[in-house]
Amino acid sequence: MKDLRGNTVSGADTASLSLFEQAQAELQCYVGDPVATIDRAIAAAPRFTMAHLFKAYVFLAGTEAAGLPTARDCRAAAVALPTNARERQHIAAVDALIAGEYDQASERLEDILLDHPRDALALQIGHVFDYFRGDARTLRDRVARVLPEWSSEVPGYHAVLGMQAFGLEECGEYGRAEEAGRKAVELNPTDAWAHHAVAHVLEMQGRIGEGLAWMGSRQEYWAPRNFFAVHNWWHWALFHLDRDEHTHVLDLYDGPIREATSKVVLDMIDASALLWRLHLRGIDVGARWTEIAESWAPLAQDGFYAFNDCHAMMAFVGAGRWDLADAALVAMAKSVEQPGSNAAMSETVGLPVARALHAFGRGKYGTVIELLRPVRTIANRFGGSHAQRDLLDLTLIEAACRDNQVSLVRALARERLAARPASPLNQRYLKAAQPSRAAA
Questions:
Q1: Cα(363)–Cα(360) distance, rounded to whole angstroms?
Q2: pTM, 2 dp
Q3: 422: confidence class by pLDDT, cuts 50, 70, 90
Q4: Which of 68, 131, 382, 421 has minimal CB crowding within 10 Å?
């Protein structure tokens, strides 16, 4: 049998293949429950190889060590079944991800797309791990290489445009990114990834009013029953934060961002990042730190993915949980000696950032500056987006301000104002650096 994009699949029947397509559509829009749907496909056709591999990918994409046992079980089920050449390439990609070899997995997924450019799963998982690796060029070009093989007549085309939009945005091609993202949500209004790509464009360009309007006008599409909703609520909060509307930010935090006290790592990252931004501005967030630190506590010694570890560190420092903060530093240091891509991520970026966050909490602002200045231009190497990694620049400029390094504050403020001239925060930093002229 063949899927809706012409790829041959092993072990499927009509009912299970229909469920596979449903699960894939759910994953593309981050709606429903693709795991439950793919489990139904497996129940209908236990020998459906790609259904087992789909489930493995979903658990690997969570960037949590807890997902590895299920991914391994799914992989074991797949290798025991008949496979075609494409499916064996998928097994190789899953093997690389299980081993933590993200760069190798990226290549394996690209190998699939060379001969099967309409393999929607290979494209989406490749795109997700390009983001986790902070590889902006591949975020853009992986899609560019296959886009001519897609059209509005091919199921899932909206998702390809949404991925194109995000890749273009991360490469600074904002006009093309916005165009692709808006076209994607016209084709499928519930495409939360495409919606978020447009939000990134508006945030990066400092178009705050348009950003708030974009989020609000489309809330009915991206907010309900969507497991990417927390991240989109986080983007909404960033627009309010850029206007110094701290009450709105805290309302969003206490409401849709954190009211469910989710233990999903991707949700906890957004919570930590938002509280840290408020913390840098001197806003008292109270017991919120305690809750998010306790949610991170079971992962303090994971050292699994440096980007996650640094966001856990924010929570531990904010809550004053120095026991957990110190344990996380030890785990990250050990992870440098382990196989896999995370070793380099931790060594080059993760550990310096985590140590800088730790030092900030201790009031050692000179140390923060020494640690962050060398990594700020290579921070993409531990993953995330420009909007997420901006937190490092915000921490750096606030440390410089508190350490009275006026020249550095002035330079960083000018840099930020070049991108967001209307930002009240950036204007305040520049004003704080102005007295040095009179003194000179």
A1: 5
A2: 0.95
A3: confident
A4: 421
